[in-house]
Amino acid sequence: MTDNPGRAVPDDAPATVGCLIAGEWVSDGQRADRVGPWTRAVVSTTRQATDHDVEVALRYARRGARAVARMSPAARADVLERAAAEALAQRDELARLLALELGKPVKDGRNEIDRVADTFAVSAAEARRIGGEVLPVAGWARGVGNTALTHRAPVGVALAITPFNAPANLLAHKLAASFAAGNTTIVKPPPQAPASSAAVVRLLLESGMPPEAVQVLHGGGPVGAALSSAPEVGVISFTGSPETGAAVARSAGAKRLVMELGGNAATIVCEDADIGAAARVCAATGYSNSGQSCISVQRVYVHRSRYEEFLGSFTLEVEKLTVGDPLDAATDVGSMVDDGAAERVVSWAHEAVAGGATITTGGRRDGATVIPTVVASPPPDARLIREEVFGAAVAVQPFDSFDEVLATCNDSRYGLQAGLFTHDVRRIVTAWRELEVGGLIVNGSSNYRLDHVPFGGVKDSGFGREAPRWMIDDYTVVKTLVLRGISLFGDQEDAR
């Protein structure tokens, strides 16, 4: 274990990031520095929101909500489509910010910005589709002679609390869907990625999003609690830990909540699987972003007849990954968010060894960089198995029967997503039915997501579904109009 202070520091001056309040970027007040986990230098400086700032932002959001709601869906969609194009134009610049603030390899950062562009484009398409329906009231006697219609109206003020691991795309999901629905949004970014988050907001403003549609308040738990409990806020979208999510829910009270609270993702490799392909996919998706993804491959269960073959192939594939400078386009694995997170991952791996497991590769760190670690056959009560590791370590275990492995996967307080390698349709359907997760990826690992497909979990992984179409359902309310004595079927003498 080392802490290497001698790495080259980029020439970039630290980004100064203010709060966006009532249409103005405010840069005075208490400041907080973000030290890059790879460079060991200050990469961004944030102006923290005060209690007064929170009050001003909430008043402005409440007033501005009406202006945003009055924008036509076409106008909102046009803004989001321009933002999609602008995200691609700023792709390299934004990926560099992510690398500096988070140690995320630029290749992963570029992929994240590509997804931001897709998310904006999908949100634009969904904005154009928001509408309502004519209800079949005349099918029942009391409805004869009447007409009932519905339409989806914006909630008003949304609060988006975003995480550090994918700060650009997860902000895009929350903010773009909220704007597509006609809401104004208050954003509380993660303290580890203030400049990256602010850059996405600036991009939207430059693309024509009106100032009434978004505000940004930096700060810690007290800022989040004040915003969550505010009566002006009608809906909250939160991504983070179950513990913080529970605190947000307590503060929120009777508000709409969409919560993605992490996972402990399992991938099952059956005896009929292509072992080489499974090993390559699990290696690529178990350590991308240093494993800091809620659906990152954490537990791999392999049929005992193929276990040694998979373990050997997987270890070799993991050892091929390039570890190092996140600003180098060849790097596969950069830094974790900080030294403490890296130390936790390594310590959990060695705890598993003390319980009888074997580390086949890795098991150490260089500052905030965890060398990709494979832990074979950890005990079932190891924290590497029971908790969310959220880091560059993957556990591999054998199983004997399919029913047994499904039960083992379900023996977790989390239930976000799972992977399954098999060509047996019966197993696929059984796993889809029996696994206690929000999504199942077949012939892929748990770590795969399409941004226009519903995403979310069960149990302690949260509730609600992200993806623009499904988030718009949570960001809007159904309003009903009943026309007494007016019917699409003409006058009815027995109308009541």
The number of helical segments is 15
* Sheet with the most strands: spatial strand order: 15-18-19-14-13-21-22
Estimated share of beta-strand residues: 15-25%
Q: Quick check: average pLDDT?
A: 95
**N-to-C span:** 80 Å
The overall strand count is 25
Oligomeric state of this protein: single chain
**Molecular shape:** globular
What topology does this entry show?
Layout: E1 15-17, E2 19-21, E3 24-26, E4 31-35, E5 42-47, H1 51-70, H2 73-89, H3 91-102, H4 106-129, E6 132-135, E7 147-154, E8 157-161, H5 167-180, E9 184-188, H6 194-206, E10 214-216, H7 221-229, E11 235-239, H8 242-252, E12 256-260, E13 266-269, H9 275-286, E14 299-303, H10 307-319, H11 339-354, E15 358-361, E16 365-366, E17 369-370, E18 373-376, H12 383-386, E19 393-399, H13 402-410, E20 414-415, E21 417-421, H14 425-434, E22 439-442, E23 458-459, E24 462-463, H15 468-475, E25 476-483
Parallel strand pairs: 1-5, 8-9, 8-11, 9-10, 11-12, 13-14, 13-21, 14-19, 18-19, 21-22
Antiparallel strand pairs: 2-3, 4-5, 6-7, 7-25, 12-24, 15-18, 16-17, 20-23
Structure at a glance:
This protein is α/β, with parallel strands linked by helices. The protein has helices spanning 51-70, 73-89, 91-102, 106-129, 167-180, 194-206, 221-229, 242-252, 275-286, 307-319, 339-354, 383-386, 402-410, 425-434, 468-475; strands at 15-17, 19-21, 24-26, 31-35, 42-47, 132-135, 147-154, 157-161, 184-188, 214-216, 235-239, 256-260, 266-269, 299-303, 358-361, 365-366, 369-370, 373-376, 393-399, 414-415, 417-421, 439-442, 458-459, 462-463, 476-483.
